[in-house]
Design brief:
The chain is of the alpha+beta class. It folds into 3 domains: 7-125, Acyl-CoA dehydrogenase/oxidase, N-terminal domain (Butyryl-Coa Dehydrogenase, subunit A, domain 1), CATH 1.10.540.10; 127-227, Beta Barrel (Butyryl-CoA Dehydrogenase, subunit A, domain 2), CATH 2.40.110; 236-381, Up-down Bundle (Butyryl-CoA Dehydrogenase, subunit A, domain 3), CATH 1.20.140. The protein has 10 helices and 9 strands. 48% of the residues are buried. The structure holds 3-thiaglutaryl-CoA and flavin-adenine dinucleotide. Flavin-adenine dinucleotide binds at residues 94, 128-131, 136-137, 161-163, 208, 213, 361, 364-365, 368, 370-371, 374, 386.
């Protein structure tokens, strides 16, 4: 397995154990039929509880329902899951970083008790509703409204492109509180079987096919006061969650790229043309050298982020740099690996074309590549160029 600068040597026992557990899970439970799921456009839902039993949801949170591991171990987990498929890492990202993290960071004791154990073991599924049909890159312009009504709120609005919405038990929906001056954004934990909630499946995706994506429609849906996350108000709430998930993606993209590289290296060594393995041709070796170098440098960035995050020094802009760079790296590596596989490379028998297709989503969600360029641009110049 590609580890060109021997990062393995510095891993702790715990980090190796988590990495190996996730790698074995992917080899045994994901690889055998992920291509079929991708073709069928389904998520392997039997894996949801299994991932919970293995402690794959938010193991980096300090809570009795989670494993309390370090940030590097968490990153290695994301790396291995995405080596299987971005849809599997997305399942863990949404459940852990986008639903469990905000409940842990901003929720009440009762909300933590109600949801964290069930989300941690996979007996409940969560989703995160920020994006709206008319507000993707600019969620602060969201229209979803929460109006005060007695001892609760009534919510109206639409969220779209929501991972897991059609299979979720609880949706963390971000909406503007119309009862307070300035209409601050608040987080609402909404059981999906409440009156006024509908979720629809989005069909026709050509990317991230082994992942469930949907819409959430809220029509005058009543939620009690206890459903509001008490400890956060404003865009800082959803954006803090994005920082957690983007961190996982920065690691995950390295895993998907490594899987492309390993598949291409093995194929090139086995496949014979003109009387010998294609790996003997300089053109093919050049491609492998380029891929290995790009993967290794992206991996180093992910390792550095883990150290900064562990000691509490990680800034969101640094996460933006890593998400932007590492996903872009994988988006360049995947087609090179695909082309090295010749005709076989366009089938679901091999992973590169699936990773290549998935990267179009990963490049777009959690802040598009362009948006991360602007976040970095603002950080580097002090001038915001969003509008
Ligand atoms: P802005 O005025 O810059 O900031 C508002 C407040 O938030 C703070 N903040 C952050 N905190 C933590 N992490 C971050 N990344 C943060 N970015 C900003 C900021 O300090 C400020 O705090 P305070 O205390 O001063 O109030 O916010 P803005 O509304 O102008 O946002 C700007 C922009 C464009 C960068 C932001 O809207 C953005 O990132 N847009 C991209 C949208 C996006 O990423 N959507 C993702 C949807 S979820 C998803 O895709 C899930 S896919 C999951 C999967 O399947 O894996
Ligand atoms: P737009 O914002 O309309 O952008 C279109 C194009 O314009 C992009 O190229 C963009 O980079 C560019 N652009 C926009 N603004 C600027 C600017 N200021 N300067 C330069 N260029 C700009 N969202 C959730 O809330 N929860 C989820 O679970 C979730 N899961 C998803 C799963 C999938 C499979 C997909 C595809 C998306 C998911 N999303 C989710 C939504 C995702 O976060 C959005 O698609 C993303 O934020 C981009 O928004 P948009 O699609 O509306 O594109």
């Amino acid at each position: 397995m590609l580890d060109y600068v021997d990062l393995e040597a510095d891993l702790s026992e715990e980090e190796r154990l988590i990495r190996d557990t996730a790698r074995e899970f992917v080899d045994e439970e994901v690889r055998p039929d992920i291509g079929d799921h991708f073709e069928a456009g389904t998520f392997p839902e039997d894996l949801i509880a299994e991932m919970g039993e293995l402690g794959f949801y938010a193991p980096n949170l300090d809570h009795e329902a989670t494993a309390n591991v370090g940030e590097r171990a968490y990153g290695l987990l994301m790396q291995e899951l995405e080596a299987g498929d971005s849809g599997v890492r997305s399942m863990a990202s949404v459940q852990g970083a986008l639903v469990m993290y905000p409940i842990h960071a901003f929720g009440s004791a009762a909300q933590r008790e109600r949801w964290l154990p069930d989300l941690a073991d996979g007996s409940a599924v969560g989703c995160f509703g920020l994006t709206e049909p008319d507000h993707g890159s600019n969620p602060s312009a969201m229209e979803t409204s929460a109006e005060r009504d007695g001892d609760g709120y009534r919510l109206t609005g639409s969220k779209t492109w929501i991972t897991n919405a059609p299979i979720a038990d609880v949706a963390l929906v971000w909406a503007k509180d119309r009862s307070v001056d300035g209409n601050p954004v608040r987080g609402f934990l909404i059981e999906t079987d409440r009156d006024g909630v509908e979720t629809n499946h989005i069909d026709g995706k050509l990317s991230m096919r082994a992942s469930v994506t949907g819409e959430i429609s809220l029509s005058d849906c009543f939620v009690p006061e206890e459903s509001v996350l008490p400890d956060v108000s404003g865009m800082k709430g959803p954006l803090s969650c994005l920082t957690q998930a983007r961190y996982g993606i920065a690691w995950g993209a390295v895993g998907a790229a490594r899987d492309c590289f390993e598949t291409a290296r093995e194929y090139a060594t086995d496949r014979e043309q003109f009387g010998g393995p294609i790996a003997r041709f300089q053109l093919q070796q050049g491609k492998l050298a380029e891929m290995a170098t790009e993967i290794t440098t992206a991996q180093l960035l992910a390792y550095r982020l883990a150290d900064l995050k562990e000691r509490g020094d990680l800034r969101p802009q640094q996460v933006s740099m890593a998400k932007r760079n590492n996903v872009s790296m994988c988006r360049e590596v995947a087609p090179i690996a695909r082309e090295m596989l010749g005709g076989n490379g366009i089938t679901t028998d091999y992973s590169p074309m699936r990773h290549l297709a998935n990267m179009e989503t990963v490049y777009t969600y959690e802040g598009t590549h362009d948006i991360h360029s602007l976040i970095l641009g603002e950080d580097l110049t002090g001038i915001a160029a969003f509008e």
